[in-house]
Amino acid sequence: LPDNAKSIVFSAHGVSREIMKAAEKKNLRIIDATCPLVDLVHRRIKSLSEKGYTILLIGHIGHDEVIGSMGWFSPNNDKSGQNITIIDSIETAKSVELENSEKLAWVSQTTLSVDDTNEIVKILKERFSNLESPKNSFICYATQNRQAAVKELIKSVNSMIIIGSKNSSNTNRLYEIAAQKVPTYQIDNASQLTKNMISEKTGISAGASVPDILVKEIVEKIKKMVTVTNVIEQKGVKEELKFKPVQL
Fold this sequence. Notes:
Elements: E1 7-10, H1 17-25, E2 29-32, H2 36-50, E3 54-58, H3 64-70, E4 84-87, H4 90-95, E5 104-108, H5 114-127, H6 141-153, E6 159-163, H7 169-179, E7 184-187, E8 202-206, H8 212-225
Parallel strand pairs: 1-2, 3-4, 3-5, 6-7, 6-8
């Protein structure tokens, strides 16, 4: 940040405590936009590590959220070998070796594939019988709902268009789910839409943070490119979860 900076915004992915403290030292006005679900992961990691747990963090190496979450680990110095380890695949779950697994728990990145995460947890529990699970899933409700909707939608379409950035974890999971069953195209916006992406029945879905306007623009462009006889909006889970604003 430049020396004359007055404010800083922490994104929904969250940041480590080190970044938080650095901002406080500079006397910056902190606007913390960390997703409340990510914040729960941070609190869980901090609490478990202070109790002497070794933690397995299921997530993608190098992802902003994972980097931030790793930074909330507070080693209990009385527990040698206690650490936090990233489990980024089924292969890693099968091969990971731990120096200290006396007290062991797992947490996860919030934008993962529900199915992949469940498979990894199953493997880890088979290897480490004392592995403790959280009371509730850490995977974002919006991510879970979209994955479930895409699984249902691909049963009745000939192709899928997934809207969202290629560096968006939850958008990539939607693409992977759809691509297993039908030709699938991932685009940022209507300018990238081409006629070969459109089939007799084309399904459209979008990442959790994609604004509705981008979906509407793609629908309108499809109408201009081909004859559209019907547009059906799939009925999914009604999202009513609300978070209380935090007073800073």
